[in-house]
Amino acid sequence: MEKFLINAVRWLKGQQKGKVGVSPQVKALGNLLTKHEVAWTSTTLPTRDLSVYCCASLHNMNVRKVEDFVAEGGGILIGSRGSSTCSTGAGFGFIPWEGGSRHLMWWSRI
Predict the structure, then answer these.
(1) Coil, strand or helix: which one is 41?
(2) Which residues pair with 107 in a beta bridge?
């Protein structure tokens, strides 16, 4: 799973220069990013200076800010482990936002 996550973040980041924003929901991802020398910062919402935002869900989040971030070219990774929404096992999918931005969802069972 480690290699998948790092590859996913790098793919989402592309050639963008900004750091990767990591929600406190998935703070363990920050340690993984540090291990692989990917610059990141902990934040509750995506900001313009980020290239990618990583979170476990959009629940209880200002979705409009996320939509604006994506519309401006930011990538978003939404993922979790053991979620009730992933009863069929592991998988991934793409979020249907327009404008050329990259978006990826992943999930896995514990």
Answers:
(1) strand
(2) 80, 91
